[in-house]
Specification:
The protein has 685 residues and is of the alpha+beta class. It contains 11 helices and 33 strands. The chain is globular and about 70 Å long. The protein binds MU-OXO-diiron and calcium ion (3 copies). One calcium ion (CA) binds at residues 15, 583, 623.
């Protein structure tokens, strides 16, 4: 772990998740244990323990089994490339017959011109008009602007998230100083305004037009729609929490507006062609110094989310002068009431934010009906005329939950817009031991979510989504990351990236390892294949890990060519190939039990047969996160985030860095890869 982030309020590494679920709800493991019995699991080992939880037929409705011809096994999508080996090298490797171009690295100006200054010399004002840091979820919107996945395959708007920053790569002043991958050191207990602004502007979302040039290379194209949305951009608050007492601040005394979106991890794409960005590990950007009797005294909407009580993640509130743009990160009660200070500023974060990439003057909108938590991303079920809109989202922290939103109004293609996301029911998942599951509504007045139990109205339920989910008895999961819906059969897949906090006593079928280093992928099928249903059946598609300590549904073998750990990014292409991206944390990469997996990588999977092949390996220190193709599936965009993050502080001070991606010199930069097949074919075939 980098040394100078040890005093963060959570004992994880830079950018990681905040464990704060102290509820008594049973974990996923405990439920599965109750079903199988610990003795059976311990004696039977991994293979026996997972029987009934893995394997395609076990939990499928009978109709699906009957539909398949008895003689021909279903094949699923074609995966045709030769897998690449595990790599510990500071390069990008793709299969034979594929080519890679680097596009829009951090600091690329949005105007299509070369940068006047490269990072880390770039000013805050220049960062305000350039691609941000730490690329994560993204979408390619074909330039016609009508359908999210139909239209041009050579010209479009990329909407891309910038999850967080590495200050030592961002600021010229960091050169030669002993700084790890956490935060800049304070000078006289203070931060510099220009540096803090640059950090705030490096977060958020970029909208940037890119087009394929005559020479086959892609380039940024100047366009009035190119814009940066970041940690200071004015935004609307919509849905049941709009105007609520818990979101009123000095900036917006009526609780209808806020500034900025932070820690934008994965994303979503609406059926009406807008972009959603998910606010994940936002709590650490604030701090609340309120004390009573010498102890921290936090309201539950801060405490349950891990708002720090001493130092904020990047110390943004510690700029001298107390200017509002910085003071808002101090969530202590310093004024006479909530409209005189920023005690409620953290309550304006933790939401799904909607952005219209085709309307540069539109304000982003925080859609509060989808709940407030560490949203990893959001993924929609297929939009069907006259049926509700359904969106799934995971809360990426240890022992947190998986949610889904079902709109009150039906989808109508001609009139659909973001207001569909303002009215509906948010559910949280309960995974039963028998392979069935239930969606439990988080609706004010239903079950325990009453005024008598501290939930005065639906706004209060949503600001305290985690507490509401605790109250209804949701199932604690192992860090839910991305979700994806199989276009062929509608099954929903979610990555559960790892959970090293799982105690030996909790080992069971669904979480078959103590100190689970490797993660798994769960999937479910909604009752009657109706995404608005309140019941489902589930199994595990993959228990990740090394050969001999892992399983794939369909009994496909785990080999050196496909073993993977810490699944995170997940996406289905239109043919039904499932793309899996890994995020082995910086402290674990190339070390201990994670050493055999090499650098983070991307895989293609056939969800029907369980076949998995390694498609791409990335440079040192990065994670692979974010993937989309053009509509013709012949150009793929993939993001590499935080190359070089594994550089020890002492090495950095001595002028050494673990990665020189992508330029071969200077500071390492997050960037988007453009991947094509040399014969012009479909990626993955
Ligand atoms: Fe930002 Fe959970 O990954
Ligand atoms: Ca992630
Ligand atoms: Ca990460
Ligand atoms: Ca992750």
């Amino acid at each position: 772990m980098p040394d100078d982030i040890r005093n963060l309020p959570y004992d994880l590494e830079a950018g990681d998740e905040i464990p704060s679920n102290t509820s008594a709800n049973r974990s996923f493991a405990e439920i599965a244990e109750a079903r199988l019995g610990r003795r059976g699991m311990l004696m039977g080992g991994l293979g026996a323990a997972i029987t009934g939880f893995i394997g395609a037929a076990g939990t499928r409705p009978a109709a699906a089994q009957i539909a398949a011809p008895a003689t021909a096994a279903p094949r699923g999508p074609v995966i045709g490339f030769r897998p690449v080996p595990v790599s510990p090298n500071d390069t990008v490797v793709v299969p034979e017959g594929y080519s890679v171009q680097v596009l829009i690295p951090h600091g690329t100006p949005l105007n299509g011109q070369p940068a006047a200054r490269k990072l880390p010399e770039m000013s805050a004002a220049e960062q305000d008009q350039a691609i941000g840091a730490h690329h994560d979820g993204m979408h390619f919107f074909p330039i016609e602007g009508r359908e999210p996945d139909q239209g041009s395959s050579t010209d479009g708007l990329i909407a891309i998230n910038h999850e967080y920053i590495e200050p030592r790569f961002l600021h010229a002043r960091a050169a030669g100083q002993s700084i790890g991958n956490g935060r800049m050191p304070l000078v006289d207990n203070q931060r510099d305004a220009e540096e803090v602004r640059k950090e705030i502007f490096a977060h958020g979302v970029s909208i940037v037009r890119v087009a394929k040039q005559a020479n086959g290379q892609w380039a940024v194209v100047a366009d009035p729609r190119n814009r940066r949305i970041h940690g200071a951009t004015p935004m609307e608050i919509a849905g049941p929490a709009r105007g609520h007492a818990l979101v009123r601040t000095k900036y917006s005394p009526d609780g209808t507006r806020t500034r900025g979106t932070l820690n934008n991890c994965a994303h979503g794409v609406t059926p009406w062609n807008t972009y959603l960005t998910a606010e994940e590990n936002w709590a650490g950007y604030f701090r609340n110094l309120d004390q009573r009797d010498g102890r921290p005294a936090l309201p539950r909407e801060h405490a349950r989310y891990g708002v720090p009580t001493s130092q904020a993640r990047y110390n943004w509130d510690q700029v001298p002068g107390g200017a509002d743009e910085f003071a808002r990160f101090n969530a202590s009660s310093t004024g006479a009431d909530a409209t005189q200070d920023y005690r409620n500023e953290p309550n304006a974060f933790g939401w799904i934010v909607e952005i219209d990439p085709f309307n540069p003057t539109s304000a982003p909108v925080k859609r509060t009906a989808l709940g407030r938590f560490a949203h990893e991303g959001v993924v929609f079920g297929p939009a069907r005329e006259g049926r509700p809109v359904v969106a799934y989202s995971g809360d990426d922290s240890t022992f947190e939950y998986i949610y889904k939103f079902v709109s009150a109004r039906p989808f109508n293609r001609a009139s659909a817009n973001g207001s569909l996301l303002d009215d509906g029911i948010l559910y949280v998942a309960k995974f039963n031991a028998d392979g069935t599951g239930e969606w439990l509504p988080l609706r004010h007045g239903t079950g325990p979510l009453t005024a008598a139990n501290g939930f005065a109205d639906q706004g209060e339920v949503l600001v305290n989504t985690r507490l509401a989910a605790d109250a209804v008895g949701a199932t604690k999961m192992d860090r839910p990351e991305w979700g994806a819906v199989d276009p062929r059969d509608g099954q929903v897949y979610f990555t559960l990236t790892n959970n090293t906090r799982r105690a030996a006593a909790q080992v069971d079928a669904a979480n078959p390892r103590a100190q689970n280093n490797f993660g798994q992928i769960i999937r479910w099928r909604e009752a009657n294949d109706d995404h608005a249903a309140t019941r489902f059946t589930w199994d595990l598609f993959l228990i990740a890990g090394p050969e001999g300590d892992s399983r794939i549904a369909g009994n496909a073998p785990v080999t050196a060519d496909n073993m993977l750990a810490c699944p995170d990014g997940l996406w289905f292409d239109a043919d039904g190939r499932m793309w899996i991206q890994t995020d082995i944390g910086e402290a674990q990469q190339l070390r201990g039990p994670l050493a055999p997996f090499g650098n983070n990588a991307m895989f293609a999977a056939n969800p029907v047969t369980g076949e998995i092949r390694r498609f791409l390996t990335g440079p040192n220190g990065q994670e692979v996160t974010g993937v989309i193709t053009t509509p013709d599936k012949r150009t793929m965009f993939v993001n590499l985030q935080h190359p070089g993050a594994t550089t020890p502080a002492a090495d950095w001070a001595a002028g050494r860095v673990n990665s020189r991606f992508p330029n071969g010199d200077g500071v390492p930069l997050s960037a988007t890869l453009v991947i094509t097949k040399n014969d012009g074919g479909i990626i993955g075939t």
